[in-house]
Amino acid sequence: MKIKAKDRKPIYPYDEWKIVEESFDVETNLRDETIFAVGNGYIGMRGNFEEGYNGPDNSSVNGTYLNGFYESKPIVYGEEAYGYAEKSQTMLNVTDSKIIQLYVDGEPLDLFSGKLISYRRTLDMKEGVLTRDMTWESGTGKQVRIRIQRFACLARKHLAVISYEVTALNFDGEIVLVSALNGEVRNQVTMGDPRAGAAFAGQVLITEGKDQDGTFAALRQRTKNTRFALVCGMENQLETENTFRMEADAPEQMVRVKYTVTAHRERTIRLTKYISYHTSRDYPEEQLLALSKETLSEARQQGFDRLREEQRQFLKDFWSRSDVEIKGDLALQQSIRFNVFHLLQSVGRDGKTNIGAKGITGEGYEGHYFWDTETYIFPFFLYTNPAIGRQLLTYRYSILDKAKERARVMSQKGALYAWRTIGGEETSAYYPAGTAQYHINADIIYALKKYMHATEDLDFFIEAGAEMLFETARLWADLGDYIPRKGNRFCINEVTGPDEYTALVNNNLFTNMMAKDHLEFAYRMAQFLKEKHGQAFQSIAGKIGLQESEIAEWKRAAEHMYIPYDEELGIHPQDDSFLDRAVWNFENTPPDKYPLLLHYHPLVIYRRQVLKQADVVLALFLQGDRFTTAEKKRNYDYYEPITTHDSSLSPCIYSILAAELGYIDKAYNYFMYTARMDLDDIHDNVKDGIHTASMAGTWLSIVHGFAGFREYQGELSFHPVVPEKWEGYRFKITFKGRVIDIDVTRDAVTYTLLSGQPVTLQHFREEVSLAPGKSQTRSLKPKLEAVIFDLDGVITDTAEYHYQAWKQLADEIGVPFDREFNEQLKGIGRLESLELILSRGELQLTEAEKIALADRKNENYKQLIESISPDDLLPGILTLLKQLRENGVKIGLASASKNAPAVLEKLGITQYFDAIADASKIKKGKPDPEIFLTAADLLGVPYRNCIGIEDAEAGIAAIKEAQMTAVGVGNRETLKHADWIVDTTVELTFERLVEIKG
């Protein structure tokens, strides 16, 4: 299904490093509060105004959140069953610390009263600071200039800072600044959309105490059910040349510090507010108040300007490793930096927290952590900031005991990670799209495997990773069964894959592929530990009671894993029953009925072929080395039209595979949809929070998509392409202690090893060795590296023999056959040809009978070709073969005939061919591109550097689908889609082929 970003003007002006709002609009305030949120991975503050908000109801969500701080309550079911998730977990809106109220001669600053003369809000992603500049006039005509700067300290987990500057412009008088903490906060409650809102109505946090000491104040609060304690503290610092007095009070659930200042025109007054949050999830409850005071005292000693510089330096280091430059597209340059910046603001870096689907910018999905982390977000941090990747895995280890408990509840061995959680327990109330997604186990271990490849961090593996790996492998071995009706293959039944529009199925392809990879990795690492680190292995095995028989079973289950495949279509069914369903009626589904989940009952969706997001296609990416290019192409072409992309996780995966398969325009369109999803509010739901997985998907689409970056078994490879609208792009990869710079232009790519030991990588299929501080440049222009020939009609003319063999068979079975009909058989396989012949008669044959007839035709053909000799080479072919060999160009054969090797032998030219792809090596014949792709793979040559030569329309179509240059020999009308057509083989010269490829 094609998707297209809404055609709308940019919401925010394009800028490389800034997001700028040039006017205040109440209609878009909810969205803007998300966009201008600040965070440091622990504290998240929506872009609410310090002075408060008096706009219409439901046009603002005043939110401050702490990653990992939640309340819980029992989930109420209409009908319960054993094993259902028992309690919800909801990230709480905590103490509001953003409050700084301004009074101008007694009149409060309010954007809904007085006059807003100028307004500009800027999120600076290089500085890490949110700035709001305003000029406001009170009802009595007094004007003030205001500058407010806010940030959550990236280098200090528990600290946020606000600098509030106010200048009287046209009066002398009194200015009052009130800095406050408010404990009377509540979460947003929404109905009807399972992706938005929280589970709690009313106030959740209980205010238990207040503390005040001069400019310091704090609120002590607690959750009712989880019993987590929270202390929010503030320290205030006023800078002014004017006289002032300070007062403090504590009405209701607030603490306040009030400054009354004698104002003089053009004299700036500056209040700096230092804010801290500490909870009992991190520290003993009795220490929280002291820690708050200590954090704030140190911050005040540093002062705002030093903290701001610290923030800038932190980001300078971050961007030096994480920045992606897009040359020639300012809109996309802005969006990729915005997305990366918000990922940094959202990710937990303490090993106790993770990254929520909405980050810490809003209440969508209740702040839960999903598989999004390991599948979409983790790769970004792994290859730019691997220390953060380690902490994300450390979080998963911290909840391993909860995963083991969940497995017990589900009557399984080992560990089963929760589908959605904060504290580790399963919180998904809808098990068909929650607990049934067992692939969460494999997703986490896939991230662990990639981490080990990229860091070789054996200490982490021994301390935490191995236990995670082995316990989760136990789950797969216990979950699956060897099913006789499936040839005693290992089957995993009653699961849900990534596509949540298809639930509770048998043998989901993605799940089985990932489980196979998981089990193989577990077996391999168990053997590695036993051989190389025996003492560590014995310690781990003793701790979890691991037996040798279990390890052997992992290997057996992986080797016998059932992988669904449909021979007729040449694709992998998404599951055992997927292809037995009717396709969703897309043509008669109006645009306003998407996303389907908000307009159709799940059963209506489940009974059709329709995808919410990439499923098989995701497997093609994550397990790319287990599929041929031809398989990837057939699967992609089948699933793309029936994928709605109702999930924001989907477009980036389709972009990556489209880029790999040569569908560059499609790749770019999907990327555009992903890249500006939040900045352009494509789904109209940014109000609920950012889309962290989609943001990471932007990075994935560039690095894994357009740059073609892959890592298999610890080896790096790149296959760069440049979208037509770009001049180029640039990024860095951190791998095994090395930092590699990849700079791609339209004509070339330059690889530079910035730091670390020498490394060898693959550029397309060429090895590139890099020394420290040195660069290697490779051209991206296509060049002639291989020529792949068809046999019949190109190298020799065996068409007459084929005609006579088919004619003999047709006469024997009483089916009409002549030379005109024989033209339809050119370039296609034996069984396909037989089906065409049989379609002209009335014979009803079994598959076995058809195979017998095809074999009989082949025997006829083999007898006829006994007379072939070198004299049967078509004119000019031998000379061309010699020229190609002399110039180092590889030569391949792509023939539908299984007799091709015998024919080459009789022609006396076998020695010229480096690879032969015939019907025995492929699953689908021409016009499917598999045979040409297979030939190129056997030759070890990139498809773009191959020329295919054919005499049949189906062959030309196959070459073009393989993204190769097509040369046709023969009828110009029939071969009109070829890049070059010759009348006879005499015209095929080496010089002309080089010219065409260039």
Automatic annotation (TrEMBL):
Per UniProt, the cofactor note for this protein states: Binds 2 magnesium ions per subunit.
Q: NCBIfam families given for it?
A: bPGM (TIGR01990), HAD-SF-IA-v3 (TIGR01509), PGMB-YQAB-SF (TIGR02009)
Put simply, this protein is called Beta-phosphoglucomutase
- List, for all copies, the residue spans of the domain called Glycoside hydrolase family 65 central catalytic: 337-699
What Pfam families does the database record attribute to this sequence? Glyco_hydro_65C, Glyco_hydro_65m, Glyco_hydro_65N, Hydrolase
| Domain Glycoside hydrolase family 65 N-terminal intervals | 21-281
Its family? Answer: Belongs to the HAD-like hydrolase superfamily. CbbY/CbbZ/Gph/YieH family.
Name the cofactor(s).
Mg(2+)
Query: From which organism does this entry originate?
Result: Effusibacillus lacus
What is the top-level taxon of the source organism? Bacteria
Site feature: Important for catalytic activity and assists the phosphoryl transfer reaction to Asp8 by balancing charge and orienting the reacting groups: S895, K926
Q: Name one GO molecular function term.
A: magnesium ion binding
Question: Where along the chain is the active site annotated?
Answer: D790, D792
Q: What are the binding positions for substrate in this chain?
A: 790-792, 806, 825-830, 833, 857, 895-899, 926
